[in-house]
From TrEMBL:
Catalysis: reaction(s): 5-taurinomethyluridine(34) in tRNA + S-sulfanyl-L-cysteinyl-[protein] + AH2 + ATP = 5-taurinomethyl-2-thiouridine(34) in tRNA + L-cysteinyl-[protein] + A + AMP + diphosphate + H(+)
Class of this enzyme: transferase
Protein name per Swiss-Prot or TrEMBL: tRNA-5-taurinomethyluridine 2-sulfurtransferase
Nucleus keyword on record: no
GO biological process: tRNA wobble position uridine thiolation
Family from the record: Belongs to the MnmA/TRMU family.
Alphabetical UniProt keywords: ATP-binding, Disulfide bond, Nucleotide-binding, RNA-binding, Transferase, tRNA processing, tRNA-binding
Domain tRNA-specific 2-thiouridylase MnmA-like C-terminal residues, every copy: 379-411
Length: 434
């Protein structure tokens, strides 16, 4: 026997043992957990899959120590819930602080938009900047993650048979689908993510938690701003944005009405505090230079409805390849589905690319006009059915027929409204549009 063969005979068992250990090694999954039923069941299901080693992480993203009216720290209570449920599942957990990242990359940019009278969505920014960026990087770099997972109701799978990259799809449970909140996350961030709840309904998730005797089975649904929670929004915002007082103004008469208590705390479609009227009045527009809040009577007032919205092409996050060229105005168009707010049923729209010069007829009610620069290109999203209360800063998300999420972007301008066009609303309007 040659020296080479004798050497191979000696090392071969060790080589085979190493290969077997590699093939049987568990992949490490780090689960972002809040103590609620969704993230708890996500961690439980992954732990049941014996090919995974699962660890829970509670993200502490908000420091309430200097916030008015906070006697106890909600984060401490939430982390105790996470520790409890992780103990029940049989996995370890830890707490990681992303307070600075949340303030710099989520909360502060939103404050700037609120101050301008816009209506940003912190939850979309939080997913992009914290859960699927800061948290994901921490999990991979410090905890050795092969995957991260969350309790979002969404699905990930290839966009077509020729692609191996994962794309975002709506969840099976249409009432709980959270792809809207994930639409600003970059494509690359999804490639090492698992959504265990994407094919489940909320009642099924509750049932799994109950059968597994998880304390989170009876946890209340989380509400409010991502990681901040539910609280009176106007008084909370006033702690960070100096209130700009002004007056309500009737959109119909132009008459100046009584004073309001804060320009930034009102959004399009919100009920206006105008007492003594036979019908409820609603905010239909905001004028920044004098902090006026424009209001109109009735939930079906035509000043609340518009046929289209403009989203800057550079502000739209395409999770898949865009179905049309984005570099110049073009008659090219594509039809798809859209959602303008969470849980709104999908509706049809037609998307084209327009220059700002072509779109100067945008709504004066909302006091937001695109720049006249021909280099500013916009997705012109034409609604098949008039849409109610489209506000600057609000995100519109586009979908393919099979539920694939193309992506989403913040509205720059809406309108003109049906009131501005002296155009009657079609009847009947679908229930979701009012």
């Amino acid at each position: 026997m040659s020296a080479m063969r004798r050497s191979m005979k000696r090392v071969w068992p060790a080589m085979m043992q190493h290969r077997r250990s590699l093939s049987t090694a568990k992949q490490r999954v780090i689960v972002g957990m809040s103590g609620g039923v969704d993230s708890s069941v996500a961690a439980y299901l992954l732990h049941q899959d014996k090919s995974f080693h699962v660890k829970g992480v509670y993200m502490n993203n908000w420091d309430s120590s200097d916030e008015e009216g906070q006697a106890t720290c909600p984060a401490d209570l939430e982390y105790e819930s996470v520790r409890q449920v992780c103990s029940e599942i049989g996995i370890s957990c830890t707490r990681v602080d992303f307070v600075q990242e949340y303030w710099n990359n989520v909360f502060s940019p939103c404050l700037d938009e609120y101050a301008q009278g816009w209506t940003p969505n912190p939850d979309l920014l939080c997913n992009r900047e914290i859960k699927f960026d800061a948290f994901a990087r921490y999990a991979h770099e410090h905890l050795g993650a092969d995957w991260i997972a969350t309790g979002h109701y969404a699905q990930l799978k290839p966009a077509d048979a020729q692609s191996s990259a994962l794309a975002l799809y709506a969840a099976v449970d249409g009432n709980k689908d959270q792809s809207y909140f994930l639409s600003h996350v970059h494509t690359s961030a999804f490639q090492k993510v698992r959504f265990p709840l994407g094919a489940l309904t909320k009642p099924q998730v509750r049932a799994i938690a109950t059968d597994a005797n998880l304390s989170a089975a009876t946890a209340k649904e989380s509400m409010g701003i991502c990681f901040i929670g539910k609280r009176p929004f106007g008084s909370f915002l006033a702690q960070y944005v100096a209130p700009r007082v002004g007056h309500f103004e009737s959109i119909e008469s132009g008459k100046r009405l009584h004073a309001h208590d804060g320009f930034s705390s009102y959004t399009i479609g919100q009920g206006a505090k105008y007492s003594g009227q036979p019908v409820k009045w609603f905010v239909v527009g905001k004028r920044e230079h004098d902090a006026a809040i424009l209001i109109a009577p009735g939930t079906h007032h035509p000043a609340l409805f518009s046929d289209h919205a403009l989203v800057p092409t550079k502000a739209f996050n395409w999770i898949t390849l865009p179905p049309l060229a984005l570099d110049q105005p073009s008659p090219q168009r594509f039809q798809c589905w859209y959602r303008a707010r969470y849980r709104q049923p999908l509706s049809r729209c037609t998307v084209t690319i327009s220059s700002a010069d072509e779109m100067l007829a945008s709504s004066s009610t909302h006091q937001q006009r695109p720049s006249s620069s021909p280099h500013n290109l916009f997705l012109h999203i034409e609604f098949d059915v008039p849409q109610r209360a489209i506000a600057p800063g609000q995100s519109i998300v586009l979908y393919r027929d099979d539920g694939l999420c193309f992506g989403g972007g913040a509205v720059h301008a809406a309108g003109p409204s049906y009131f501005e066009m002296s155009k009657p609303l079609p009847s009947p309007l679908p229930e979701w549009s009012v």
